[in-house]
Write a structure and sequence with these properties.
Blueprint lengths: L5 H14 L4 E8 L2 E5 L3 E2 L2 E2 L4 E7 L15 H10 L4 E4 L4 E4 L4 E5 L2 E5 L14 H14 L3 H11 L14 E4 L2 E5 L6 H5 L30 E6 L5 E5 L12 E7 L1 E3 L5 E3 H7 L5 E2 L9 H8 L4 E5 L3 E8 L8 H17 L21
């Protein structure tokens, strides 16, 4: 479904005329997301701590897939966020970037300071702090060549490729309880960038120093850690008692691998649908790929109570510079980005009382 709020079309058109229609693209879309929860997991309206929460996750067979450096899909991001905390996170209630792994952060001129005062530990007692954040960033700079990573790496460590996590990086310094990032000028968008899952904190002691892969998923910075495979071959996650988040809803989360399968009648459906109907899965998240007829099958076949949650319509706007637009000066690209952003802020009242406009710059070309 394509939806453009009435004032947006004319305003975006005006921005296009000012800056040149060939320089960028703005795409509009609206979607609804659906997830299903089996009532059997719940008791008296609250999640039962004694039960295992079984969750359908596409191709959840190898814990090694859930590395912040290499995630590609929404389902991988969901598990990464359970296993690893980020330096800062976005709080939707205040519409602000707030502390997560860092207990406090602030700008001092062009220097971005992060302080670590929490007694945060992995399940094995290893303390998580500034050193882990520093080497997580260095590992990211060595292993990833994505544009957004290359931008931050060149800004902090220079243009020369990094050969190891021990290579010098003059734009970062750390001690036991503090990390400082040095920029040429203050850039508030950096904090928004650091909320992304790819910047998750991977504990230094969990890394294989030879190949920089995560060798021990029991040592994590997030509210859960990898507890191995159960007798059914499912990946199990358990709460990390050393994390500051204590209100985890389940004592064990079992990831059930979900795939699209072909039935004997030639139709295709998500494997999770049949398991959900049998009561072997408690939760099918929004990011799972359901095919036509899956939901109807649940409606007509489900014998016990279940809950369906359909989100409000999400209006998504995506902006990308064309090859011609990428030749514009950085200052012009920023003006275009802010002009488009202001269009949606100006007309955000059209979203209604219980909705809000949000925005995110993904690449340096938008800064």
């Amino acid at each position: 479904m394509i939806k453009v709020f009435k004032n947006h079309k004319s305003e975006v058109g005006r921005v296009c005329r000012i800056f040149g229609r060939r320089n960028f693209l703005v795409l509009f879309a609206a979607v609804n997301l659906l997830f299903l929860t089996n009532r059997y997991f719940r008791s008296d309206g609250l999640f039962s701590e004694s039960r295992i929460l079984t969750v359908a996750i596409p191709e959840a067979k190898d814990i090694g897939v859930y590395d912040p450096v290499s995630i590609k899909y929404a389902d991988e991001k969901t598990i990464v966020e359970a296993l690893f905390s980020t330096l800062v996170k976005f709080d939707f209630d205040s519409n602000q970037v707030v502390a997560d792994e860092a207990s406090r952060f602030y700008w001092r001129e062009s220097q971005l300071h992060f302080e670590f005062e929490r007694d945060h530990k992995a399940i094995n007692g290893t303390r998580i702090g500034a050193r882990d954040v520093y080497f997580s960033l260095m590992r990211l700079f060595v292993k990833s060549h994505k544009p957004v990573i290359a931008y931050l790496k060149s800004t902090l460590c220079g243009e020369k490729p990094l050969e190891s996590i021990d290579a010098p990086c003059p734009g970062m310094e750390f001690d036991e309880k503090k990390l400082v990032l040095y920029f040429k000028q203050k850039n508030p968008n950096i904090l928004a960038l650091l909320t992304c899952s790819i910047f998750s904190v991977v504990p230094y002691s969990s890394i294989d120093k030879d190949n920089l892969k995560i060798s021990n998923y029991e040592i994590t910075s997030g509210p859960y850690f990898y507890a191995g495979l159960d007798s059914k071959g499912r990946i199990n996650l358990k709460p990390n008692s050393g994390h500051w988040i204590k209100n985890t809803n389940a004592k064990t989360i079992a990831l059930v691998s979900d795939e699209i399968i072909k039935l004997s009648n030639g139709h295709r459906e998500a494997r999770s649908i049949d398991l959900f109907l049998k009561g072997e899965i408690d939760h099918i998240p929004t990011h799972n790929l359901l095919v036509k007829g899956d939901f109807e099958k649940i409606e007509t076949s489900m014998k016990t109570y279940y809950e369906t949650h359909l989100t409000n319509e999400l209006s998504i706007v995506y902006m990308a510079f064309t090859n011609a637009g990428m030749k514009l000066p950085l200052s012009d690209r920023r003006k275009i980005s802010l002009a488009i952003q202001s269009v949606f802020k100006m007309n955000s009242h059209e979203l209604g009382k219980y909705r809000r406009a949000t925005q995110q710059f993904f690449f340096p070309q938008g800064f």
